[in-house]
Amino acid sequence: MIISRPSFLRPLVLSVLAVSVLFSKGLHLFQHAISIPPTSFVAYFPTFFLQEALLIVGAWALLHKTTGVPSVLGTAVTVLITYLTFVLSASQTAFYLIAGSEVRWDAAASVGNDREGRKLIFSGLGSFLGAAVVLAIISWLVTPGLSVWINNWISALFSLAATNNSDEELPITTVEQPPRKRGLIRFWTVCAMLGTLGLYLLRPQVPYTHMSGSLPFTFFQALRPKPAITHQPGDHVFPLQDGLGEENWEGSNGHFKGWAPGMGLVYADKTTRPSWAFGNLPPGFHRWTDPSPNSGGDAQPGEHEDPKNGTSKHFYNPVDDPLRITNLDHKVLEPLTRALKDHPVPINHVVLVMMESARKEIFPFKYGSHLHRDILSSYRNQEIKALQEVNDRLSRLTPIAEKLTGESGGFSQSENPSTNKTWQDTAEPGMGGINVNGVLTGSSLSFKSVVMNHCGVGPLPVNFLKEVETEIYQPCFMQILDLLNRLKENSTDAGASGSGKDNEPIHNRKWNSVFLQTATGMYDHQNILNEMMGFKKAIYREDIGQNEAKYHHDDMKEINYFGYAEREVYPYLRDVVNNTVRDNERLFLSHFTSTTHHPWKTPSDFPDEQYFADDGVRTKHEDMNRYLNTVRYVDSWLGDMLGVLDEVGIANETLVVFVGDHGQAFHEDAPVSGTYENGHISNFRVPLVFRHPLLPRIQVNANATSMSVLPTILDLLATTQSLNQADTDVVIDLLNEYEGQSLIRPYQATHQGRQAWNFGVINAGGTMLSVGSAAVPYRLILPLKSDFEFVFSNLDMDPHEVSPLRGWSVVEVIHRVRREHGDKAADWVADAEKVGRWWVEERKRLWNYQ
């Protein structure tokens, strides 16, 4: 029988809707099936499909034969819902194929509203089209059978007459059901409905409510406006009161403000401004603009009245911070002390290099590492010669990183021949700077990590860069430099006028701050953030890509949807450095690499290597292999950068800080790849190096976060006497304001029974939190929404988080941890969950986020 096009159209619409929602739900359940006991999954299985059943029946009713306007409206509404659901289902499938996780529609909408973010979305167009074709084919094939089955069931259920009239909206022929059969269908349908509703009412809310979510309802729910939440003093109390008693309070001493959380002291135990806080202070110093923050009588420690609207504004108070552990009362590390006695270590310029998706494991790449073993294991049954060849290629992967960190890759000399093509380190043996092992990023979302590294603050635990909608609660490094410049202008010392003359002492010269990258500056408000943080100048893809740009050339090609390869910014880097020397200024340069970002492409003239075994087809290692090639490209670029400092002659007076914004998980590491809603440890371990040719080579082990970057830079400037006395006093005073510890002093994992907690916001920011501590090897992924599991790992026993413990409630996780790791670990999980939730609310309070 040939079915005419009009008679087949509406059954096809119903089929597309049914296939889309059921395929989406199947994929959704597949990703959560292993997270709950099999018996519970089977028992509650019917309850997962209530929304789908109601949606399909409702669509059938709208498409069923009616007349006039209701028929047109019903058909139109169903077609629109079907189209939306089909697109959402294909998108969800494509995202899973790429990242191995679920798409969040609120986050997708935020990215889609960003012009540059849409390029990120379109990078998955191929996977989306493939998923859409598969859904369309399945829908076409099942249309006749599905339509007949639904018609027969609903006809029997409601005693509707079957028809084969070609004028019907759903004209697929149905068979008249005998009365007895219709009665059985009704009976079993009612039983199934009552049983499913009973199970629905009996089942726990978590995680089964999330597992029951269905398209398109979850999409509409994600787009609903969220109510504003205000954070007032007293809304939350620090949960761990042990160690906060009066017997542990510390009085102020010199620049140290004291520590007495909850005591109700006025800020810093003083009612006057610091001696440097006068005149027109730069942005970032708003909390010092009122000489008496508590003068209103009703204000609390850590808040003052906003003169613009009369409301209370919160700020960070180190005296009142129950988490703060400082190490500024400890001496600097002994090797640094000895070096400073032997010779001066001038830091006249500072360069901060943030490296996109930089995993500590590959900075440098090491023989015998977890990733090295994975690569070799791909060469099954290969000859020894083949393994030697791949080791030879891997030995050349990160030669610059080896020189910067002082860590050998461990490959034999024959595998790693010296070459004149790479940057040559001029530092004397035993010199070169401080390499920090054990550092975790404070956020796996790049720009939140940018805020941490430049401003020493904890990021705002909400999705995306909402930080630009409020005020950063600490002065950023660029704003501190601006303050030092203004103080020089106000100085009565003629020798500190900051005039920029050749004979002027370097310590009295003014600072200039420049940001440099080849990627777009428009994505997720990065340009606004850089302006907020105090950069005087910024160069982005939008600047170097214009035809009238100074160094534009016709063969410039973007390597990904964010911008150009790093070497396109090389002449601008040289200009910045040369202009600094010419103008007798001091430079703070911040540079953000981008080539190691997805989709991991290198310039066409850069030869790619095959690191994993090549089977001649697309393999599961393709993404990781491309990533390793971009790592090699960026490694050589870092050498080019350092070569500019050598060329201009300022290498021996420049501190260069190398730090990863976050790591990058691949399918070789975990079931879910990427950083989005993925708390795997490979997304958090990052390199951190404080490079200076005259600093001693020091290997520091500290389970810290990148919140320590800014305090360490300030401490180095003061300790090396790289500032004049007035600036030194200001910097030391401000250094005591920050939460992070300095990494040139012994890191304090515990203090008076308290432990140094570490927190990491997981991309996109508002759904999951990484909680750790410098005192123990434990780590907890804390869900901030009921859609996610708790995840516990012991990094001493499972350093790569191959087999973490999971659970949908903290009680469940504590029970499992106690059974497998003992009481100490279980008690830590209970504390970590409480402290993590407190930290989230405390960040929102400090950021004055509503």
From TrEMBL:
Sulfatase N-terminal domain: residues covered: 532-717
Sequence intervals crossing the membrane = 12-30, 42-63, 75-99, 120-140, 184-202
Keywords (alphabetical) are: Membrane, Transmembrane, Transmembrane helix
SUPFAM superfamilies named in the record: Alkaline phosphatase-like (SSF53649)
- Per the record, which residues fall in region Disordered? 287-313
Q: Does the keyword Transmembrane helix apply?
A: yes
Q: What is this protein called?
A: Sulfatase N-terminal domain-containing protein
* Species for this entry: Penicillium alfredii
Give the range the annotation lists for the signal sequence: none
| Keyword Zinc applies | no
Question: What Pfam families does this protein's entry cite?
Answer: Sulfatase (PF00884)
Q: Which InterPro entries match?
A: Alkaline_phosphatase_core_sf (IPR017850), GAG_Ulvan_Degrading_Sulfatases (IPR052701), Sulfatase_N (IPR000917)
